[in-house]
Amino acid sequence: QVQLVESGGGLVQTGGSLRLSCIASGTVPSIYTVGWYRQTPGKRRELVAAWTSGGGTPNPATSMEERFAISGDSAKNTVFLQLNSLKPEDTAVYSCNLRSYIPQDVDYWGQGTQVTVSS
């Protein structure tokens, strides 16, 4: 089992920045992908960025938004999501998901952290 804990959310003004952290503990596999997702009431959860551990991937980080950057530290089982130039529409609960692949695909979720951007 893997446990995920997110932190770093909060209230920020438009144009501000936040750095979210997702820390994995428990039986963390050596190869996994962490995705950061966000969701607002009434809307579908959407993928914001993803990062793959292990060092064998030429492009381990993928972000759906140029203002956001994802990075990871495999040794610490921690993945960061840097949110820059925040807008009110970025307000959402941000959650991290860890997908392990061996012996089969298994998904783990954290409890989420609230990001609120004031106008």
Q: What distinguishing features does this structure have?
A:
mainly beta, 4-stranded antiparallel beta sheet, 119 residues
- Helix count equals 0
Residue fraction in strands = over 45%
Could you name the ranges where pLDDT drops below 50 across 5 or more consecutive residues? Answer: none
Computed over alpha carbons, the radius of gyration is 14 Å
Strand pairing plus helix content: what structural class?
mainly beta
Please describe what this structure looks like.
- By secondary structure, this protein is mostly beta strands.
- The protein has no helices and eleven strands.
- The protein has strands spanning 2-7, 10-13, 18-26, 32-39, 46-52, 61-63, 68-73, 78-83, 92-100, 106-109, 113-118.
- Strands 2, 4, 5, 6, 9, 10 and 11 form a seven-stranded mixed beta sheet that branches. Strands 1-3-8-7 form a four-stranded antiparallel beta sheet, with no helix packed on it.
- The relative contact order is 0.32.
Summary?
It contains no helices and eleven strands. The protein is an all-beta fold and about 120 residues long.
List the helices and strands and how they pair.
Layout: E1 2-7, E2 10-13, E3 18-26, E4 32-39, E5 46-52, E6 61-63, E7 68-73, E8 78-83, E9 92-100, E10 106-109, E11 113-118
